[in-house]
Structures
1.
Amino acid sequence: MNIADTGDMFVIKFVLLTYRLLGMAPVTISKTQSSKLKFSQSWTGAVYNLSLITGVLTECSRQIPTMLGESSNDETSFSQMYRNVLIVSGNTFLVILLLRFCLCQRKLTEIGNELVEMDRYLDQLPGIYHLRAGRTYVFFVLTLHLTIIITYCALYLAVHPIKPAFFTMIVFPCTVMSFYTLQYSLVVFVIERRFTSLNEALASVETKTVGVNDRSVVSIFVIKRAYARLYRICSEISNFYAPLTVLIVVNLSTSLLYELYKIFFGLTRRSSVLPSPTIKFILGFLWISVRKLPIVLLTSTVRKCHMQMQMTSDVVHKLQDKLGACRDVKSELKNFITDLMHRSFQFTAYGMFRIDCSLLKSIVSTMTTYFVLFIQFQLASDKGASE
């Protein structure tokens, strides 16, 4: 998806509208006289975010005291306390998230405009640089996630009495946080497409510009500059998303643990609320998908991006072997290799943990351990209550 290309405006506007409604895109896009897209700060978006924050705080002041006093025959005091902590922390994280996007409009617009400028810069490579299309993937992923959420809400309403507090205090915060993670993955996907296209352009220098040494040198120089800009953009993206990623990963792990607990005991016990264990399982599976799918997409996309970064060095060395006869080309490639040796980047959450497949492994192992402890604690509580 070429951000500088107005032909991709439908997908861009669809993504922007979705995230603007959720308070995570308080920016506007416009087209300049040269048909160039421009990201700008939006006071309307800032006011909308502040309105959302006010609404969340108002709803919390109304609903949290009531929800804290509720009791259920299907849960113990410990599980109810665990649920209440999740509700309070989830809404707290939601307010922080909305406030951060409201205050960081400038950084958002800078990242967007840097990508636009880089796409324009790469127009200097006609014939060898072709940006891989990604609009279908972006549209599909966003639509799929929306469909899962709508399906969950529809099924929940079909088998439960209508509880507005459930959707405002639980579903909405979790939805926003899942879309935040999904937004992070889509931004990394945009970067990964450019690294892939640059690697292909670099590999095609030999076949498309062989015999034209000056053009080869210029092409390699342009690609090298583009790599430097991409690395800088990656660093800015990682720093922007890092603070809330820490909070969301913590919330994700704890909420998934609670959902697994509900599924397990929903299948092994008869409930006074939902007599059908199958419905409970389907609802639990859909809700876990809402929370888990974005983090899976994020880690897999980051992995692909890292692979493309590492592949660049191999491409440059192969090109050096084939075009080493030209002194100018060889010198430019040598400088490129030196630059790559000094560039080592990882998407992390402030260095606390890496955003890759190892994060998934850590989440699964942690959840498994605490899930077993949770069940043992629950069974012990049931035994004590029966005695």
Note: The mean pLDDT is 83.
2.
Amino acid sequence: MRIAILRRAPGASVSMDIYADAIVAGLRKVRPDWEFIEVSPQGKGLETPQNSWVAGLKKYYQRYWHYPRSLRKLKVDVAHIVDHSDGYLVKPLQQLGIPTVVTCHDIINWVRPDWFQGRARLSALSMATWKRAVQGMQRSDHIFTVSHHTAKDLTEHLGILPQQITVTPNGVDPVLRVWPQAETQQARRHYGLTEPTCCLLNVGSNNPRKNLEAILSALIPLRAQGIPAHFWKVGADFTSEQKRFIETHGLQDAISYLGRPDLQTLNKIYSAADILVAPSIYEGFGLTVLESMACGTPVVTSNVTSLPEVAGDAALMVSPIDVDAIAEAIGWLWKDADLRQSLVAKGLIRAKRFTWENTAEKIASVYQDVLNK
């Protein structure tokens, strides 16, 4: 069987690059006799500064005009679009007689459009374009979602029938592991921690749904209680508003921004932290929860959207809008060694359940089903 994996443009989305790389590797492992070809927009002239209007127009041209037309000579048995925002490609692929499936990671912008406002130059135009692109999924032969929660959103908001959907969770990179204590202590010293310190970690963007303000706010009662809390932020830097909050409340010495490390360094950071705090208001999946568990670090996360199905009973779950509850959970986990050890053990077991090979096996089975229709 010959499968086309349709990707985003190189570097357009780090998370989609990671997903596509992992899916292709998993599929090649579980179906070594199949051929997988990777397709993505490869337009010229994108060296224009990324914050310019010209660059934006070129991206629109490459994505919505050039990319669909570049597929006309594609000769495959099944096409798999790995990002739901490329759902507009379903129609031209099906016109070529190619069965097409799509992975939907979330439809957060549809559910909470207010979080989208202000993140694009022409937010109304961008939202309309995104919605039209995503609606292309409705024509697909099948849809994969990374969580049951996302599947539910598709049914409620786009009218997609449950039988059109297969849940295929994200996997944990097998590279991630528990690092020896000597190395994690060295990492803590490297990033300026003195002992004892309750090191809190958050990995990801600064999008409003990530709810970083709740972590920043929780630092205030934690420090008032004498808990030596320090917050490591990995991924996107704090927004200007978040930085003002930090300065206003005198939290500068309790926070470190660690940038965007490579996977090996991130592994050490996960293992060196005491608690991952992920109080997201909305997630399509929540991979950092499992990554932290795989590295032996306990988790405090939200009790909403997809996070309960990802974390299971291996994390403390709280309301993301209750700062006192977040601070209480952190303090409890910091003070109770037995609880901490229990969650670490449960987390290691849970993380092992989520492998890219398992996901690839489910996906490959659907490829066969849609081809045999």
Note: The chain has 15 helices and twelve strands.
3.
Amino acid sequence: MATDSERFFQEWPARMAKAKAAAGDAVKGFGALFASVMKDGALTLREKELIALGIGIALRCEPCINLHVQKCLEAGATREQIIDAASVAVMMQGGPCFTYLPKVVEAIEAVQQQPK
């Protein structure tokens, strides 16, 4: 049986394509903002993705968790670095974020099982 994260990664491309078609310019604008921020600067892309993951956890945003775990791994973050960043989110936000640590681990495993 597929996990929530595995289903997310299977369904996300089609869901995002529909959203892009419906939202048009708003999606393009967000994409431009994302591209301008999420690149090496004073912080590396890997560091920025780890920060984004922590914020996603603090906001309890499951799509954010899945996507930023994937982006963290693509940017070269290790499983240990991802868990460490997730732990910082828990420390800052408390118990409710702690319940999202299993989602982080699930997302790591789902990304690592995807065909390359």
Note: Residues 5 and 106 are 6 Å apart (CA to CA).
